Amino acid sequence: MKRTVFFVSAFTFILSLFPLASQESDFSGEAGSLWAAALRSETCGDFILGDTYLKGKFQAFYGNSSACAEGRAGFDGTENTAYWKLNEIYIDYSEDFWAFRAGRQKAAWGKADGIDITNVICPKDYSSVSALFEDESLAVDAARLSLNRGNVSADFYFIPFFTPAGLPEEKAAGLSSIKLPEENIKNAEYGLKVSGYFSKCDLSLYGFYGWEDMPFMNYTLSSEGVQAAASYKRMAMLGADAAVPLGQTVLRLEGAFFPGRHFQVAAEKILSGSESTEGHNNLLALAGLDWMPEGWTFTAQYYCDCLFGDSANLDRSRNFDQVATLSISKSLFAETLELSASAVLNLKDLDSAVELSAEYSLSDSIYLEAGGYIFNEGKEKGTYGEYKDYTSVYLKARYVF
Question: 106-334: what CATH class?
Fold first, then answer.
C-alpha cells in the first residue's frame, strides 16, 4: 500500500511540473468500476473481478514539442489490494517531414480486429482476470523516428529493453526460474513500419527483429520431481496489411511470416532428451470485411495459422489452425444506447467465445454497461474451452473527463 501511495504521489508531482514549461496543457481520463461474477464454475455467483480504477492522461505542448504521461491506479476487490501502473510517459518533437518520440510508449500494428498478426511491438498483459474483459497491451521503452513525405510515412523503432508479456500468477508461480534476456545493446529490438495512403487502398509493410513475448518452458528431473524453468527466444517477422474500400464495405487483408520461429516442444519429449524448442517457418494470414450501414456495424474475419514442417514433437497439436470471427453492433435512441455482440469460433475444434453487451450513455460523461462472456468447449476443449469457468456476467460504470 505504501508503495502505491508513493508512486501515485510521484506521478502527481511529475504532472504538476509539466504546465510550468508548456504553452498549453490537456488532462483527460476516466474513473469507473467493473464487476464480474462467474456463472458456470463450481463457485457459481462468486465475483471473479472487482476493479475500481482511475486513469489519467496528461499532455503538455510547447511549439513543436510535447510530453505525455498516462497512468492508472485502482483497487482490486477480489484480491483486496491496491495497484498502480505507469502506462506511458514520453516526449515528442515534430517537424513538417519528420518526428521523434522517446520514452515508454505503445504502438499498434495491423488492421485485424482482436487478433494479433503483425502486432508484435507491444506485449499483452495476461497477469489478471481483467485480460479477459479488456484487451490491454504493455508499453515498451523505445525511441521512434518518423519520416513523412506526401502520402507515405515510415516509422523506425529502437527498443533497448525487453518487455515480456504479463504472465498469469498461477503460471509464474509454477516456475523455478524465468531467464530474461541480458540488458545489453546486442539484445535490443528493432522495428520498421512503412505506410502508404492512396485513393484505392491503404497499404503498410512491417519488419521486426526482437524477442517472443511469451516464455518457453524447459523441464528437468530432480530429487524433488519435475522442475520447470522458462526463457525467451529471438523472433523475426515480415508482414503487410491493406485496407481496400469496396462501396459501403471495406476489405481488410493482413499477413505475417516468421522465419525459423521457435515453438514449444512437448514436456515428455524434453524429459526424454529433446531440446525445449524447435524452429519452424510460420505464416499468419487474415481477411476481413467491414460493413457500416446507418447505425449498424458488421465485421467478419477469417484467420489462419500455418506451421511448416513436422510438428510431431511439439506441444502444438497440429500444423494448421483456422478461426472465424463475427461482430455486430447497433446504435439506438440518438446514439445513447449501443448493443453489440461478437463471437469467435475455432473451425477445427469448434470451441468458441461469445460476448454480449449493452452500453447506455446517461450523459455526455457517464456510461453504464452490462454484458456477459460465454466460453464453450468444442469437439476438444480447445483454446476457448480452457476458459469455460470464466463464463460470466458483468456490470461497468465509468465517468469520462
Answer: mainly beta
